[in-house]
């Protein structure tokens, strides 16, 4: 069972999601987010084994993930699991930008993204934990915002008390480049030791993966045994060679 407290013994969703009374209703809201979008494919020909992004023929990893693997061997996230693809210009890409703003519709965008993430963790969690080599997460963590927003991170605030594990927080190191796109093993630090921890690392978007993998390195430097990176939206170009692939990882109904 995923490490979440969003259901009661009767299967009802915990109060806090307005208008949602069951997993079926929550799942229906999540489907609104992914409607018409290609599902993240399983690793294979044309798919990066690390981030599930588009890949040039003849390679196992995309260019960025190859750089990460060469720069920090053994210190990266043990699995990267995107809940959905977010093609440029799609409604999901817009929601991922809108929910962190103060513009009209930000609350509705956040509610849709929260439903997507909760359903994904509930339905896919066990598989993700196995791939990361953990029984279940012992801690949760959000990749720090490059914009220096007030804490908590908007994604952590969105989840509220729906994850039944303690949160740990990473801090940006003094002098680190907040806007760096590449992997920087010294960019973040954990506030204390995480010896033997199994960490669920959450991020809302993945483009190059530099920030998320820098966060994974910091968690492992702090002693984390395993890190499972779950990403709401894996940014991809508006049109990709994989867009016509059959959906192999959609949310189950």
Strand content: 5-15%
Largest sheet: 4 strands, parallel
Overall helicity: 25-40%
Q: Give Rg in angstroms.
A: 17 Å
Structural class: alpha/beta
Point out poorly predicted stretches.
1-19, 241-253
- Order of SSEs: HHEHHEHEEEHE
Quick description:
With 253 residues, this protein is α/β, with parallel strands linked by helices.
Overview of this protein structure:
It is built from six helices and six strands. It has a single domain, classed as 3-Layer(aba) Sandwich (Rossmann fold). Helix 1 crosses helix 4 and helix 3 packs across helix 4. It is globular, with a radius of gyration of 17 Å. The strands form two sheets. Strands 1-6-5-2 form a four-stranded parallel sheet. A two-stranded antiparallel sheet has the order 3-4. The chain has 253 residues and is α/β, with parallel strands linked by helices.
Task: State the main characteristics.
6 strands, two-stranded antiparallel ribbon, disordered C terminus, disordered N terminus, 15% strand, alpha/beta, Rossmann fold, 29% helix, 253 residues
How are the secondary structure elements laid out?
Layout lengths: L22 H12 L28 H9 L7 E9 L3 H8 L7 H27 L6 E4 L11 H6 L11 E2 L15 E2 L8 E9 L3 H12 L4 E11 L17
Helix pairs in contact: 1-4, 3-4
């Amino acid at each position: 069972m995923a490490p979440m407290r969003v259901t009661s013994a009767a299967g009802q969703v915990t109060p806090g999601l307005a208008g949602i009374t069951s997993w079926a209703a929550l799942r229906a809201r999540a489907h609104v987010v992914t409607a018409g979008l290609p599902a993240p494919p399983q690793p294979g020909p044309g798919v990066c084994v690390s981030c599930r992004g588009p890949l040039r023929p003849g390679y196992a990893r995309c260019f960025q993930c190859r750089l990460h693997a060469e720069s920090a061997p053994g210190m990266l996230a043990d699995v990267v699991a995107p809940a959905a693809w977010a093609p440029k210009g799609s409604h999901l890409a817009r929601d991922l930008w809108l929910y962190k703003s103060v513009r009209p519709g930000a609350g509705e965008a956040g509610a849709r993204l929260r439903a997507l993430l909760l359903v994904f963790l509930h339905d896919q969690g066990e598989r993700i934990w196995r791939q990361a080599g953990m029984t279940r997460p012992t801690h949760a963590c959000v990749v720090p915002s490059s914009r220096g927003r007030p804490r908590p991170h908007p994604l952590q605030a969105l989840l509220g008390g729906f994850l039944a594990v303690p949160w740990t927080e990473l801090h940006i190191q003094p002098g680190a480049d907040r806007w760096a796109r590449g992997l920087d093993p010294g960019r973040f630090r954990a506030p204390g030791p995480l010896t033997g921890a199994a960490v669920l690392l959450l991020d809302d978007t993945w483009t190059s993966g530099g920030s998320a993998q820098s966060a994974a390195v910091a968690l492992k430097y702090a002693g984390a045994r395993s890190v499972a990176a779950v990403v709401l939206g894996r940014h991809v170009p508006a049109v990709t060679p994989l867009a016509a692939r059959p959906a192999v990882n959609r949310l189950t109904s």
